[in-house]
Amino acid sequence: MNYFGLLISITTLFIIGLGFPLVIHGERIFGFLWWPYMMGTGVLLIIASLLIHVDWISALIGVLGATFVWGSTELKEQAVRAELGWYPFNPSKLRSPFESIIKKWRAPHL
Amino acid sequence: MNFIGLLAALTAFFSIWFGHVAVRKIESVSPTIWLPTLIFLVLGLIVEILSLSMVNRLWSVAFGILGITLLFEALELRRQQKRVKKGHAPANPNNPRHAKILAEHSSATILDLLKRDPIGHVISSDESTHLLSTF
Asked: How far is B33 from chain A (nearest CA, A)?
């Protein structure tokens, strides 16, 4: 029996669980226009995982990166949920660097 | 270079994506909730057993993460039905189970209220309905 995958996947469940408050609070404080930064953080974490020789740390950093990338695709929909009153709406969000450029891009949604 | 993190990331991302789409679709068209829940549960357990029986760590991680997301989707089907009751996800009037939800829950709607871009301020449900027709 190889318990490695099971242990990693149970921890993965908790990391994905962290993704929910990450998206909710991230959208409330920053707004969905920070999505490229969230996606970039995820990609950097996945690249960092390539350089980690300890298997379990590499795997969990990879999963954390995937959670950030997935979360970045959820921000837009979360912004709409807050506008509908399903979540608290914060009218004074922190503006993202290069916001005017990011606005021209289509925010990802899967 | 250690590719186990990349493999874990890709497996997690694509199985979350698949699960996200599959749960919404299946919950919308399936007349029962228990049958797809049971299928996800059994598939998840089979994939977890596969993970346990793999000698190679890469395969063990890939099957492990896929299996755990399948098990999570089994739970998500019920949560998705709750969203439909609240009107947070669109009801499908052609599905008898959803038709019943539409009749019993005044909050349920056939509109997908999330299918638009954010506009930057809070809006009423009437405004939101109007806005949907412009997207």
From this structure: 23
Q: How far is A15 from chain B (nearest CA, A)?
A: 11
Task: Provide the residue ranges of all domains of chain B, joining segments of one domain with +.
Answer: 4-132
Give me the domain span that covers residue A60: 20-104
CB nearest to A70's CB, from B16, B48, B68: B16
Domain count, chain A: 1
**Residues A10, B68 contacting (CB under 8 angstroms):** yes
Distance CA B19, CA A84 (A): 25
Nearest to A65 by CA among A36, A80, A44: A44
User: Within the 71-130 window of chain B, which residues sit less than 8 Å (CB to CB) from chain A?
Assistant: 72, 88, 113-114, 116-123, 125, 128
Long-range contact list for A35-39, CB < 8 A, 24+ apart? A35/A72, A35/A73, A35/A75, A35/A76, A35/A102, A35/A107, A35/A108, A36/A72, A36/A102, A36/A105, A37/A96, A37/A97, A38/A68, A38/A69, A38/A71, A38/A72, A38/A75, A39/A68, A39/A69, A39/A72, A39/A73, A39/A108
pLDDT tens string A42-82: 999 999 999 999 999 999 999 999 999 999 999 999 999 99
ipTM of the complex: 0.94
* Rounded CA separation A92/A98 (Å): 17
